[in-house]
Amino acid sequence: MAIDIDKLIDDGLTENGEVLHLKGLFLGFRGMMKLAQNPKLKTVKVLNISENQCGDEGSEALAESSYLQNLENLVLNHNDIGDEGAVAIANSTNFPNLKKVSMFGNIIGDRGARAFAESPESKKYEKLDLYKNQIGDEGYKLLTESKYLKNCEELEIYRE
Predict the structure, then answer these.
(1) For the segment 66-93, what is each residue's pLDDT rounded down to a tens digit?
(2) Most-buried pick from 60, 99, 107, 135 (CB within 10 A)?
(3) Statement: the pTM of the whole predicted model exceeds 0.90
(4) Nearest alpha-carbon partner for 84 in 54, 112, 118, 116
């Protein structure tokens, strides 16, 4: 069964078009690719696409989207995203207004942490949530000592 992304967007979009909730729909990377190519995202400021099993490919598609210029808050929790997806999000210049990134509960390691720590794009973040990923001592040190994250008010990187 094909994913009707237009219907899902219409159902999940607030009336003013600024908040889109698509949590737990298991869109996968193909659904995420369709979403990223949809012009209805132009007005979205808050995008919650947690629990969609998008993986690295899905987050890479979002990072390449030309329709997320107004995005301020990106929630990608529990999506099986690893280092490749984190690198794509961290280095994307397609999110000029992005202030909050939540990638809680993925499989991001030190390489993904390094991307956020070393990306000039990170300097605009108020919140970066990488809680419950696979970040080791190196990644932890890079994030906490990053010159680009020094003004980040909420840096969540607790490990178990």
Answers:
(1) 999 999 999 999 999 999 999 999 999 9
(2) 135
(3) yes
(4) 112
